[in-house]
Each structure stands twice: as structure tokens, then as C-alpha cells.
Amino acid sequence: MNASVRQGKLIKGQTGDWEVVIGMEVHAQVTSQSKLFSGASTEFGGEPNSHVSLVDAAMPGMLPVINAECVRQAVRTGLGLNAAINLRSVFDRKNYFYPDSPQGYQISQYKSPIVGEGDVVVELDGGKVATIGIERLHLEQDAGKLLHDQSPSMSFVDLNRCGVALMEIVSKPDIRDAEQAKAYVTKLRSILRYLGTCDGDMEKGSLRADVNVSVRKPGGPLGTRCEIKNMNSITFIGQAIEYEARRQIEILEDGGAIDQETRLYDPNKGETRSMRSKEEAHDYRYFPDPDLLPLEFDQAFVDALKAELPELPDQKKTRFVADFGLSAYDASVLVAERESAVFYETVLDRLANRARDGKVAANWVINELFGRLNKEGRDITDSPVNAEQLAAIIDLIGEGTISGKIAKDLFEIVWQEGGDPRALVESRGMKQVTDLSAIEKVVDDIIAANPDKAAQVKDKPQSLGWFVGQVMKASGGKANPQSVNDLLKSKLGV
Amino acid sequence: MTDLTSLTLAEARKGLADKTFTSLELTDAHLSAIEAARVLNAFVMETPDQARDMAKAADDKIARGEGGPLAGVPLGIKDLYATKGVRTTACSKILGNFVPTYESTVTSQLWRDGAVMLGKLNNDEFAMGSANETSCFGPVGNPWRREGSNTTLVPGGSSGGSASAVAALLCMGATATDTGGSIRQPAAFTATVGIKPTYGRCSRWGIVAFASSLDQAGPIARSVRDSAMLLRSMAGHDPKDTTSVDVAVPDYEAAIGKSVKGMRIGIPKEYRLDGMPAEIEKLWSEGAAWLKAAGAELVEVSLPHTKYALPAYYIVAPAEASSNLARYDGVRYGLREQGKNIIEQYENTRAEGFGAEVRRRVMIGTYVLSAGYYDAYYLRAQKVRTLIKKDFEDCFARGVDAILTPATPSAAFGIGEKGGADPVEMYLNDIFTVTVNMAGLPGIAVPAGKDAQGLPLGLQLIGRPFDEETLFSLGEVIEQAAGRFTPARWW
Questions:
Q1: Cα angle: B150, vertex B154, B159; to 5 degrees
Q2: How near does any CA of chain A get to the CA of B18, in Å?
Q3: Which residues of A touch B242 (CB under 8 A)?
Q4: Is there a contact between B350 and B117 (Cβ–Cβ < 8 Å)?
Q5: Closest by alpha carbon to B314, among B461, B130, B60, B165?
Q6: Where would you tag: which of A175, A427, B36, B309 has the fewest CB atoms within 10 A of its CB?
Q7: Do A61 and B209 touch (CB under 8 A)?
Q8: SS3 A448
Q9: What is d(CA A395, CA A402) in angstroms, rounded to the nearest whole number?
Q10: pLDDT (mean) for A415-430
Q11: What is the β-pairing status of strands B443-450 and B456-463?
Q12: CA distance A384 to A393
């Protein structure tokens, strides 16, 4: 693996280069059947207030009870981030009034989070990598949703999401430019999806990020930061950082100072704007939640979860490179999305000779399949060609039944019409011709028809390719290219 | 029918089992008594129809030989307990006419064991008070009066309705809650028995929260045995309250009459306050002498951090309360006072819905948790709490089985007499009881005598964690020696 980069893209200002320093707080909704402290369902898209328990609605006398599955998911995530797992952590109350928070406080973890320091290795353009430190991960409750468009005079509140478990994953301020920031969220999302601890669906809000941005002269002291809240698109995160960094640089170069504040990104205008200043910041009056005992478990609990962790993208990538000779880049492409890796591995499982054809399979998945899917804007999960079909096509190439060129035609037929590739090759007469006498006749005919060119070949060996092309064309692509080559060479005396 | 109301719970149980009378008769007798005692303002909600239905059901079960441990026994329920389908307000305007769709764990266990609900009992608003004067339904009268006086006295608080109703023979027992003395102090003011069990002994689920780390449910009854019977049904682990503890609930009644010979009783020197009334001093000595006569050994013990308990309590309890009461915001249930925007709606609702004492504590609690003050107040108070706990642990580690103290620094006082100018004057009522909540220990208040004006006084016994049995054994010794006290009916 390449050495981790420590620098990002610098931004040129009027007074020279500026470095951007970014830290992120990612809120990831925990994949679980029920909420963090109640038995209500976490299902998305229910009728408003249909997944609300007495606890979620903060009825008098109700008490929270920790959902053990959410604890397991947080520990699994911590392990996936190479992080320290704290065997004792504490739930605190973060006090604030808002109608989407029925208790009048959010149960969170303040001083003692369940997961401590870890790191994430992210891939950058040009095969570079950067290691981003993780400061902590803690569990907390999600809030409900206010609906302002239901009535001209009133606001409504939907508490379905209220109390759903979130993991807040806080990075260290190790991110140095927009590209790294996007790569970090992408990688984090990938790890969570591999672990099955968060579905990573940013459109539904399952994963959202608060981005802290400051600028400084390279190597200088940290600048004052602004927090861009609630980003739910990786593209927008990149845009918001670019805008925000330039905004701050302009202010500083004009002799101004940055106000520490919370900002929102407007993707339509492509700019961030102030939401509230530091002076308006809440005093959350954190204190340990007296309704909940400290969360304690033993190392054996952690070890058992560790033993059952799935293979994560970095491990998978290393294995693909080692076992099938893939390039690091190709391996990264395959492991980036869990579904892609699953597809590739299913192809591998179906191959007759995966040691021989593993790399070919990777090329097919990346170039033919992904290319075609991208073109049509489809997702790997609804690919018209399934892993079994693709494996059969690759088997047919590997065993010499069809040429690579025919294989592309076959792929197209399967894409359009479906069906068993092996049966299609038979029924449509797509088999490669390896019968030398049949090919020989074609070769002889072509040489006979083109005496001038045949004479030139001795002086210009590169023109042999023209003959190969002619023979292949005449055979409808079914002749074995190697046999054609050999025959032409001997007959033309090259 | 009045004779039926004067029975102890244990006596009623026998009468019901022997079919001397029915639960319906017993229940009707109490319903009549409640009606005749409305001047006491002990009940804020009477549920006669429900009571009779429950009594009839209990009678059926008794007839079939399926009656539970409390079959047919009519009880009063402090309004802090959520009762399904019956208005529950914590005696605060802010809950309005809130009717829970759920039943608290503790009351559901009482109904499981056959008890009958007569209605909901008055208490200080959100259990914040020591005289039951902060209730939105108005103050409760103590059935006891000073000799030769017509002045109505407070029954103590916050479980004033519970204590008054039990003392006035309006119910055979009552549920109560104790955050800083709210079971033991009113019990002492009304010559009833009240036990606050170990923190975690009873489930808090469905009980309106005041200060979660201190709140604990418990009974008020007319005898030590009756309180033991009630606690057995009320106690027990509840998976819905993670602070409730999974330890078996013993047959507390079996502890009644058990010999206390050889038990070591600690007398904490720090509880001997300057200016303590002579009659309290005398009562305490008498209690010690009774226990000694029963074979217990008296030892002087030291609980050095006692003097910090009250100030620390009045930081921890309001801090938790300020957060616990944040849910009363007018958005989902209870009172809502409209405003121009959501902030104004909050402000109007909470200003209108909370009484002065609750507002005071919410403000104190908000202050002590604020940035810049947290370490100086809340964190330091928690450290004091740890030290108080350790004082008791050290004491028990030296072989002390229980600690004897006065329950209150004085007898009941008149309505409006205390705390008008200085709230601390009222807070001082809890001086002997708050330490027990801070340490999470069990404490029982038992009537032990009267002051010069004929008002009841109580003694407190503090036990080891989850050793309520020793408190019942010792409490009964005091009860036997002191006798039982019944107020003369004036209402």
C-alpha cells in the first residue's frame, strides 16, 4: 500500500496558498428492528406517528431501556473502524426544547462514548491513500420531523424517527480538501454497508454529515471553523467545502476574521449561509441520564462480535490483488460497493477455473457490466445479466468455445433477451471454429484472392493483421484467432 | 360501617378470608368515609364505580379460593402513579386532564394481587414539597390537630394525601413515593408507618418522575405489618425500568416478630442537631431504649458528611427535575397555552402550568447544570453523594445492622406556617431523610410518641441495601413499645 498522504490540494489566494482543514461528524442510522430505547419499529415510510411508543412520545413516567442490538451494531462499527471499544460508556442527556424532541432532551453519549479512537484509510485519485483518524463514535437518539406544510396556521410533528438509534462518528481534523472529504464519506459509507450496521441511504437521511471547515496557511495554526450542517449528498459535501473554503479565504485576505458559526449549504445557489452564531449556540446542560445505568459489557462480548465480522473492503481488496492478480485500482473499484463485490464474488464462485479466469472476470465486471449499467443508469442489484450468466460467458471464453469478440455479442444477447449463455452459443451457432481444415480453406481463398498483399507481407509483417481480419470476417468471427494467425504465418512464410 | 374502616389491613384480610364481610362492604365503608372527609382534601379523584367493580371481582375470586395476597383490600393511589383510564396529574395544572393509556408497574402489581382502587390521592405538585401545600388541588388537612386547637395542620409531603387518608381511615393503605423523605416525613406527621425501600426495589415505570436517581415507590399504612404486606406486592424487578434490581422479593411479613436480639443499632452523632427540641431528643432515646430492651445492642456511629446532604440534595434533585419536567411543553398532552410562536407557547404553557415551587426548582436545576456552573454545583454534589454513601457503607461494614434517627425535626405545623418567606425553612424538614435517598438505602418511619401538644412524632430506621426485613423487625419492636395512635375525628 502506498504511503498515506498528509496534504491535500492547496487553494491559491491573493496572498499565497491556503490549506483547508476539515473534520466531520457523520450521523449514521443504525440498522435495527426497533429504536434505541423503545420497542417501536424503525421502518421507513410509515404513516406519520405510526411507529411511536409511549417512551418515544415521552409520556409521563416512561423510561428508556437500551436496545442490545443497537449496542452490538455500534461495537461492530467500532471494530470496522479499527477503533478502541470502551467496555464502559455512559448515556447523557442533551437538554433543549424543540417539538421534534418530546423528552425535552436527546439521550446521547457525551463524556464517555462507546467507541474511542480509530482510523479509516481512503483511496484518492492516482492510487494515493490518506488515513483519516476517528475521534470517537457514540450512540444517540434521532429526532422526529416537523411538518410545516399541512396547515396554514399550525405545524405538525411526526415522531416515527424519534428515538431511532444513530451513531455519531466523529473524525479528527485530518481531512485536507474536498476530494479527501468525499473519499472519506464514501469509504465510511462502504464500511458501514459491509458491516450491515447502516444502510447508508443518504437520500432517506440514513447517513448525513456535519462538516467543519477552516483554512490556514500551510503548517500554520488552525483557523476558526464553521460547521456546515446536515449534508446528505457526497457531491454537495464537496461543493460546500470548496465554496466555504474560498469564502473564508476571501474574508481573511480582506483582513477580516471568521466567526465561529453554524452554516447551511444551499445546493441550488451553490453557497453556504449562516444559520446561527456561536452566541446563539445552545447550552445543552449535559448530565448523565439518571434513568440509565452506565453501559457495561466484557471483552468476551467484543471478541465474539469481532469473530463474526464480515470481510471489509480493505481486506477484500488485498485478497483480490493477491489471489487473482488484479490491479489495486480494479480491486478498489470492485470492493467500493458491497453489492459490486458480492456480484464479483458470485461470478468467481460459479467459474469453472477461477484461478485462471478471476482476472478476466474482473475485467468483464468492471468494463462490460459496469459500463453497460452506467450507460443505462441502472444499479448492480437490477442488472439484466446475473452473476451466473456472466460466469458462463467467461467460462466459454476460457475454455476456447467462443472468442472474446463473440463473447461481447453473446453478452449483448443475454442483456437483451436473457437465457443460458451456453445454450445460446449452441442454438445460434456462435461456437468458435477450431477445425483447422475448415479454417485452412478460408485462408487459402483469401490469399488466392489477394496475391499483391500476400507478396507484400514478407516486407511488411505488420500487414499480416489485415489477413487475420479478413479471415475472421469471412468466418463470421467464429474462427479461432490463434489458429488463423498460425496458418497465415506458415502459408505466407512470415 | 365505620368499624370496618378501622381495621388494619391484616385484620381485613382475615375478615375477608373468613367471609365475615365482603370486599364490597369493606369498599363501600371506605367510599362513605372518603365522602365524609372531603374537607381533608386527601383525594383528588374518587373512583367509586371502579372501586365497586374491583371489589366485586375480588369477592368472586375470594369465593373461588383464588384471592391474591391483597384480595379485596381498598387502597388509595398517589396521583403520581399512572392509572390506566383514570386521570393522572401529579397534582400539577400542566397535566390538565391527562388520562394515561397505561398502568404503572407498581399499581398493576397491586391489582394483580387483588387490591381495590378507591381513587387518586393528593400530593405536592410533582412531589416537590414537604407539606402538601404545592398541589394544584390545594393543601391537604392532617387528621391530627394540636390539643385544644382548631388549626388545620399539614400532613407533610409530598405524599400528604396518602398519609392523611391512611391516618383518617379513608383507605387501608396507600401508595406513596419518596425522593427526599416524601413517604417518611408525612408518615411521621400522621402517626402512620411509611417505608421507602432500597433504590431499585420497586419499578419506577409509570410513576411521574421527579428526580430519577432518588425517586422510589413505597407504601404508607397503619401498621408495620400492613406496610410489609403492601411492599411485598409493590416490589420486584421490572425489565421496563433498568434501574430496578433483579433480586428476589422476600416475604416481608415473615420478618415481623422476628427477634432483634444481638442486632447492632447505630446512633449517628451527627444527627444530634443544635437546638433540637427536647421532645425529639427524648423520643430518640426512648426508641433506643426499646430496641435495647428487645435485645439489640446500641452503638454510637459517625456519618461525617451528613451536614452536606441537604445542600447536595437540593442540587441533585432540582437538576434531574429540570430535565425530567422538560417534556411538559404543551405539545403532546396536558395544558397548552398558545403563543405567537413555539418559544412563546412553551413559555406561556410552562408559566401557567407549573406552580411556584416547581418553577423554582426547575430554575435551580437549570442553573446548576449550566455551562460554567456544572462543575461547581452538580459535579460537586455528586461527589458529596458518593461520600455520604461511603459513610453508610463504612458504618454497615463495622457490623451495624440498622441506624436509628428521628424521622423529622418537629411535629406537623399549620398550613401556611412555614417556608413562606424562606423556602429553606421548608427544605429543612427533610434533614433526617434526604441522606437515605442520596445513599439509595431503605428507610422506615414508625410512630413512636407524641409531642407536648399531642401531635405524633416518628422515628426512622435506616437499613442495609435490600434489607428491608430488618427494618420491619425493628420497626415492629418500636410499634409494640410505643403503641398505635389514632386521631380524634373532627371532620
A1: 145
A2: 39
A3: 63-66, 291-293
A4: no
A5: B130
A6: A427
A7: yes
A8: helix
A9: 9
A10: 92
A11: antiparallel
A12: 14
Can you tell me whether residue A105 is helix, strand or coil?
strand
Tell me the pLDDT tens digit for each residue of A278-317: 777 789 999 999 999 999 999 999 999 999 999 999 999 9
- Closest to B433 measured CA to CA, from B226, B152, B107, B189: B189
Q: Which three cell numbers stand for residue A226?
A: 464553521
Amino acid letter, B404: L
**What is the ipTM score, two decimals?**
0.96
Q: How far is CA B30 from CA A438, B16, B19, B216, B377, in A?
A: 112, 15, 18, 27, 47
Query: Is residue B385 classed exposed, middle or buried when 0-12, 13-18 and 19+ CB atoms within 10 A define those classes?
Result: buried
Q: Tell me whether residue B158 is one of the annotated catalytic residues.
A: yes
Query: Using the 8-state DSSP alphabet, how is residue A463 labeled?
Result: G
The dihedrals phi and psi of B458, each to the nearest 5 degrees, come to: -125, 160
Instruction: Say how far apart CA B378 and CA B380 lie, in whole Å.
Output: 5
Per the CB < 8 A criterion, the answer to whether A382 and A408 are in contact is no
Pairing of strands B402-406, B264-268: parallel
For residue A263, give every residue at least 6 positions away whose Cβ sits within 8 Å of its Cβ, in sequence order, or none.
A226, A227, A228, A229, A244, A272, A273, A274, A275
Least confident of A204-218, A230-244, A433-447, B266-280: A433-447
Exposure of B163 by Cβ count < 10 A (0-12 exposed, 13-18 middle, 19+ buried)?
Answer: buried
Using CA atoms, how far apart are residues A362 and A358, in angstroms rounded to an integer? 6
Of the residues B158, B162, B203, B322, which is catalytic? B158
Average pLDDT, chain A: 93
Instruction: Output the nine-digit C-alpha cell for B271.
Output: 444527627
Span B1-33, pLDDT tens digits: 448 999 999 999 999 999 999 999 999 999 999
Give the HSE-up count for residue B486: Cα atoms under 13 Å, Cβ half-sphere. Answer: 11
Place of cell 385544644: B148
Q: How many CA atoms lie within 13 A of B238 on its CB side?
A: 26
- Estimate to the nearest angstrom the gap between the alpha carbon of A64 and the chain centroid: 34
Chain A segment 154-193 residues within 8 A of B by beta carbon are: 155, 157
| Strand, helix or coil for residue A212 | strand
Q: Which residue has the cell 470502551?
A: A86
Angle at which helix A178-195 crosses helix A338-350, to 10 degrees, equals: 60
Closest CB from A62, A65, A98 relative to B242? A65
Which amino acid appears at position B126 of this protein? F
Q: Is A403 helix (H, G, I), strand (E, B) or coil?
A: coil
**B264-268 and B297-301 strand pairing:** parallel
B182 is catalytic: yes
CA B404 and chain centroid, separation = 18
Strand, helix or coil for residue A337: coil
Three cell numbers at A162? 424519534
Which grid cell is B378?
Answer: 452538580
Cβ contact B331–A285 (<8 Å): no
CB A174 within 8 A of CB A122: no
Residue B224: count of CB within 10 angstroms of its CB: 28
